[in-house]
Amino acid sequence: MRSADGTVSGRFLEPRERRGLPLLACIHGGGSNGRYFRLKGRSLAEAAVARGFPVLLVDRPGHAGSPALPGSDPIAASVPLIHRFVDEVREVHGGGGKDGHGKGGVAVIGHSIGGAVALRLAATCGDRPLLGVAVSGIGDVSPPAVKAMELPADTTAFTPPPAFAEAIFHDPDRRLDWKALASLRAATEPWLVAEIAEIVNSWPRQWPAVAAAIGVPVHLRLAEHDRIWETGTAAVARMAAALGRAPHVDAALLRDGGHLYEAYRDGPALIAAQLDFLRSLTRRGVDPAGT
Q1: Please, what sign has the CA dihedral across residues 184, 169, 272, 246?
Q2: What pLDDT is stored for residue 160 in this prediction?
Q3: Mean pLDDT of 106-131
Q4: Does any domain span residue 2?
Q5: Per the structure, how many domains does the chain have?
Q6: Which residues contact 141 (CB under 8 A, 6 or more apart)?
Q7: Rounded distance, CA 269 to CA 261, Å?
């Protein structure tokens, strides 16, 4: 599927049986596309469809053939475009938890940069029927080594050397599922320089205002060995405390894994926890507008 303005694309997956669940929009991180959520043996998309969620795998602007957005803040600029795309899909395919206009409700899962997008969507949902968001791999500040990273100055996109990717993505004990890691190649794309610069330099400054504006339930996870973000129980608690307006925050540290946690031994447990959280919101009758 492609948005009416051509800036965003994605794949829609229909469950065999509709169970009154919201449209689940999944938003990927940097250096990948929406196939991140279909890793072999670690497919969030398949798990969600099996539970009855209609699923939209979003390919953000600049990925899967869509043009990259200009300017120094392409992540922030992508949020209204993704908002409209999800609305377009919701108009056609719907979901559970109908709003006053007969359209279905929405839930969002985001990883890494996609987590920043999901949190921005939650902060700007207005009267859209957003039930809640579940994010992983997104922190509030990067460690010194990441902030000191030199990005190419002569190109808009680049592929990092394997040794560099190994150093920031993998935990020291390598509890990776290699089938999942191999299938990740189908989702891999070049990194967009402007996105990396924005998420490392601008996002930490923007986060407090984003967090303060979020009025829907949030499920937040940081991996114990994430090297892109400051991590640990204190970092998790700090982010949870910033979400003071959210009616419910479930925040915790993911043990024994790195940034690409879905590809680790306990990746299926993360996926199950995210889907359980979002499904519980429909059972509790949470106001889908977050008001």
Answers
A1: negative
A2: 86
A3: 94
A4: no
A5: 1
A6: 204, 229, 230
A7: 10
